[in-house]
Structures are given as C-alpha cells and as structure tokens.
Amino acid sequence: MKHLLLLTFMVFSIAGCQSSKEETANITVAAAASLSDAMKELNSLYEQEHPDTEITLNLASSGVLANQIKQGAPIDVYFSASESYFDDIKKEDLLEIETNLLRNKLVLIKSQSSKLSSFDQLDESHEGRFAIGTPETVPAGAYAKEALQYANKWDKLEDQLIFSKDVRQVLTYVETGNADAGIVYETDYRSSSKVTLVEDVPIQSYSPIIYPAGIVKGANEGASDYFTFLQSDEALAIFESYGFQSDVTAND
Predict the structure, then answer these.
(1) Eight-class DSSP state of 123
(2) Which of 55, 61, 97, 230 pairs as cysteine with 166 (C-beta 3.0–4.6 A)?
(3) Environment class of residue 215 by beta-carbon count within 10 Å: exposed (0-12), middle (13-18) or buried (19+)?
(4) Would you say 188 and 167 are in contact if contact means Cβ atoms under 8 Å apart?
(5) Same structural domain for residues 141 and 169?
(6) Closest Cα to residue 76, out of 108, 105, 121, 46?
(7) Does 14 reside within a domain?
(8) Is residue 123 domain-shared with residue 162, that is, in the same domain?
C-alpha cells in the first residue's frame, strides 16, 4: 500500500512539473540594436512582473531581423528602427497588429582625440576614418547616407567611410579610435562616456526616424500582453529615460 501511495505521489508530482513547464510563456523579441539597453531593462521588469514568462531578446540591425522573419524564424514581436523594413514585413502579410511607438534623431560624434568641431567640416579636408552603419541593412546608416547626400558630402567622404553591421558597432569604432567620427542615434551617444558629441545632424537632411513595432503572425501566447506592456506609460517612461521620444507625431 505504501508503495502504491508513493507511486501515485510521484506520478502527480511529475504531471505537476510538466504542467508548470507547459504554462511558461516563451516570447522571442527581435529588436533593433539601438534599442538594446532600453529593451534589456524593460524585459527584466516584465519578467519580474510576469514570473511565468521568459523573454528571448534578439538584437541586430532592422534589415537583418526583417530577413529572419521572412525566412520563418520563430519571432513573436518585431521592433524596428526603420519604417521601410517594417513595411516589407507588412506587405508580406506577416504581422497581426502594429503601431508606431518611438522616435529618434541623428547626432555626429567624434573620438576624444578628434579635432572635428561641426557637421560642416565633413568634407575632403577632414582627416580620419568616418563610420556609419551599412546603408543597405542598417537604418541608422541609411539615414546617415541620406543626410550626407543632402549636404553634398557623401562623395567627398567616400574614401574615408567604414561601414558597420549595426549602429552600436559605429559607436564602438569611435569609442576605440578605430574611427575618428561617426553618425549614430542620439540614444546611442547617451549610452557612452567615451565619445564626444559634435552636434545634431541637421534634422531637415534626413527622413523622420520612427520605430514601429508589431506582433508577428503565429506568435506564441503571451505576445499580446507583452506588446500591450511596450505601449504602457511605464514602458514609455523607460524608453524616454534612454533618450527616445514617445510622441511620434511631433516635429522638431
């Protein structure tokens, strides 16, 4: 009889463990590299408030992440730094729901040894390597190219340009002195104490930088609650603490 009771207890214990595991929500979030610091804080907060949820954060350039979704990668939420890449996903009918969530802007930064003093100085007389994200896959790079072309500086800087896999790598290049200067988002500049701000890139020289977010079709259960959380006042306050702007309709 004792053996039977012990066996019954073990069966129910195993079933209970399996049920607990099955009830755990796993959410994979694909987010632009420029969102990394804010997303890590937000995800930690969400997991504390939802102990039955585990979040996997996939950080890369928006273009790389968009391609992963198109290829069927198991991604539940896509948070892009580019409306263009986001629209590509929408056109393929891969999103359940979406919204424009944040704004950002470009700044010109330099290494601590650089003598660069203004955006206007970026021409053929400027010495040193100049870093931007790869325009074809990195939104910050595409915006930077747009700004440089608007100011007739793209061709003049062509021999000095070095390209990065995402905007955070641009920041690293300038921090380490591998690039004399670079163009990043304001939020990236704020995350570093090893670079110097030269000035804002003229805002009229590039398209508005909007961060859309959406739930990917076939997303795991729990993605909807998480997506709602990203739009909450609590989450937006955290984004703003990193320099993002939550009023996506505002004009500077």
Answers:
(1) S
(2) 61
(3) buried
(4) yes
(5) yes
(6) 46
(7) no
(8) yes
Instruction: Please give the residue range of the domain that contains residue 71.
Output: 25-103+210-241
Give the chain's domain count.
Answer: 2
Q: Within 10 Å of residue 245's Cβ, how many Cβ atoms?
A: 18
- Provide φ and ψ at 104, rounded to 5°: -150, 180
In this structure, what DSSP letter does residue 214 have? E
In the numeric block, which tokens belong to residue 2?
């004792």
Strand order in the sheet with 25-32: 53-60, 25-32, 77-79, 209-216, 95-104
DSSP symbols for 14-82:
HHHHHHHHHH-EEEEEEEEGGGHHHHHHHHHHHHHH-TTEEEEEEEE-HHHHHHHHHTT---SEEE-S-
CATH number assigned to the domain comprising residue 128:
3.40.190.10
